[in-house]
Amino acid sequence: MSLTLDRTAPTDAPILGVLAERWSTRVFDPETPIDETALRSALEAARWAPSGMNHQPWRLILARRGSAAHEKIVSALMGFNQAWAPAAGALLVVLAEHETAEGDARPWALYDAGQAAAHFTVQAHAEGLATHQMGGFVADDLRAAFDIEARFTPVTVIAVGALGDIDAAEEGLRQRELAPRERRSVADSLLVDD
Question: In angstroms, how far is the first alpha carbon of the chain from the final one?
Fold first, then answer.
């Protein structure tokens, strides 16, 4: 299923269409299986994200809806995320490897893992998948559920799948999904512009 709702960002300068059109939904189709070809392309985009010294300090946990791993991730989510995220075709946990197995520090691991997550979401959108990155999860619950080594830090959980029917969503959620897209201006983000 492709994304058909137009949520294109009102940008102040031209940007790539795939970037302007990408948005984070909380409404996923609970019946449509994940498009495996599109998912593989998104994972490949994450694989090719830039990283300091090409260390690629990220690891991923991929769990499809209906699997035991999916349930473990859902149980680690916090608050409202537990209400909507289970409908996603898959959940992806992005981990940052902040230290190698030999004990060497990877100081840019969080940044690099974020790049992998961003590349994943942009490619997923280009492939017709909907995504939503979440920070609302209990990292220790994920660690326990998947026996994650201490040298890895859970950074985000990404819900990915087919876009659901926004009009059929509960009214508060529907209004949230259809609200105008807003961002701080570039000028307000630049601390120095010399």
Answer: 46
How many whole angstroms separate alpha carbon 56 and alpha carbon 108? 10
pLDDT tens digits for range 92-102: 999 999 999 99
Beta bridge pairs of residue 105: 99
Sequence-ordered list of residues with C-beta below 8 angstroms from that of 88, at least 6 positions apart, any chain: 28, 65, 132, 159, 160, 161
Please tell me the distance from the alpha carbon of residue 172 to that of residue 189, in angstroms, as a whole number: 30
Strands of the sheet containing 130-134, edge to edge, are 58-64, 90-97, 152-161, 130-134
Q: Is the dihedral of CA 124, 8, 5, 79 positive or negative?
A: positive
Q: What are phi and psi of 126, to 5 degrees?
A: -60, -30
CB distance 167 to 174 below 8 Å: yes
CA distances (Å), 24 to each of 8, 40, 56, 122, 167, in order? 12, 20, 25, 11, 16
109-146, pLDDT tens digit by residue? 999 999 999 999 999 999 999 999 999 999 999 999 99
Say what the pTM is.
0.93
